[in-house]
From TrEMBL, chain A:
Keywords: Transferase. One of its GO terms (biological process) is glutathione metabolic process. The keyword ATP-binding does not apply. Its EC number is 2.5.1.18. InterPro entries: Glutathione-S-Trfase_C-like, Glutathione-S-Trfase_C_sf, Glutathione_S-Trfase, Glutathione_S-Trfase_N, GST_alpha, GST_C, GST_superfamily, Thioredoxin-like_sf. This is glutathione transferase. Belongs to the GST superfamily. Alpha family. Gene3D superfamilies: 1.20.1050.10, Glutaredoxin (3.40.30.10). It comes from Thalassarche chlororhynchos. Residues 85-208 form the GST C-terminal domain. The lineage of its organism: Eukaryota, Metazoa, Chordata, Craniata, Vertebrata. Pfam families: GST_C_3, GST_N. Transmembrane segments: none annotated.
TrEMBL record, chain B:
This is Glutathione S-transferase. It comes from Thalassarche chlororhynchos. The gene is Gsta2_0. GO terms for molecular function: glutathione transferase activity. The keyword DNA damage does not apply. Residues 3-83 form the GST N-terminal domain. SUPFAM superfamilies: GST C-terminal domain-like, Thioredoxin-like. InterPro entries: Glutathione-S-Trfase_C-like, Glutathione-S-Trfase_C_sf, Glutathione_S-Trfase, Glutathione_S-Trfase_N, GST_alpha, GST_C, GST_superfamily, Thioredoxin-like_sf. GO terms for biological process: glutathione metabolic process; xenobiotic metabolic process.
Amino acid sequence: MSGKPKLHYFNGRGRMESIRWLLAAAGVEFEECFLETKDDLTKLQKDGSLLFQQVPMVEIDGMKMVQSRAIGNYIATKYNLYGKDLKERALIDMYVEAVIDLNELFMTHAFQPADKKQQHFATIVDKATNRYFPVYEKVLKDHGQDFLVGNQFSRADVQLLETLLMAEECKPDILAKFPLLQSFKARISNIPTIKKFLQPGSQRKPPLQEKDVPKLMKIFH
Amino acid sequence: MAGKPKLRYAKGRGRMESIRWLLAAAGVEFEEEFIETKEDLEKLRNDGSLLFQQVPMVEIDGMKMVQTRAILSYMAAKYNLYGKDLKERAWIDMYVEGTTELMGMMMFLAFQPADTKEKNLALMIERATTRYFPVYEKALKDHGHDYLVGNKLSWADIHLLEAILMVEECKPDILSAFPLLQ
């Protein structure tokens, strides 16, 4: 019994990726059990491992945790990535929730029908550059500190970096108007645990390819 | 300056309703300022009150909080409705995410065109009775306590009650197979 958290999900980003990022940022080693077929999912559902019949599921500290937000909250608190008090937590939560909203848009892009794809892409870019990124740019500008909240590395920094990189995969120059986000990206990427996670061969997953979508649909539908 | 939390939203349930429930359960008086027109929303956006240009927004403890879950987490912790330790919080979070999904399905229903409404309603009822309610029924059965987590009233209980009542509005006998939820 290794004592390491064990992640149950398919071999791709989806709703598990933010959890991988958090664990990696905290320097926590974890194992992964990939669902490859519908039978794999059904087996987990039948043996009572999935509280609401869904993945992600993470075995950690004797619990079989489900619901990506609940898992993220637990890991962030346990590894001191959740601020020092309730007000810092509130700020972190606000920043993280918005990033989750933006991530949702990126995640669903691969599943868009061909005729809707271009418009969806335009929506993502518009929201990212007009609604979300300006907020984080301003936060960094206003306090002039290295991290988003409380002058200390937190979950908010990890999740924002994840999103910035995902955004750049979609549109490489998306951060052109956001100098502080660019330097933030460079700075957080250099944190040793993050740097390690960004190396090839880490447990970070690549973006979903269109050719993988049918296989995924078979598992979950 | 009242010191009471001030809620900004449309005059209806939507994403603010869970917040109203939580404050009420905690015995906290609050004020509401309703958004009636697009101008009302634009005004809030233009004066910088809405961090991501969206409501709900709650003025509380000197902050203008946005993002429903962030607001709910803050209140649950502030009013001691979030369990006594990290593990209890984990369970509360898991249960609340489940009821959030269920209530999300209900909220989504209202915006459906007539032809898909029927199908989505049936799906919601199926999920309620086969995916979500059995979990809470079992939790109550297994520990035999009055509350879902830690033998004490928490956010999870309030949220579940809200969800149950909401589903019963759609289908009054939905709890027929769930004596402990009743």
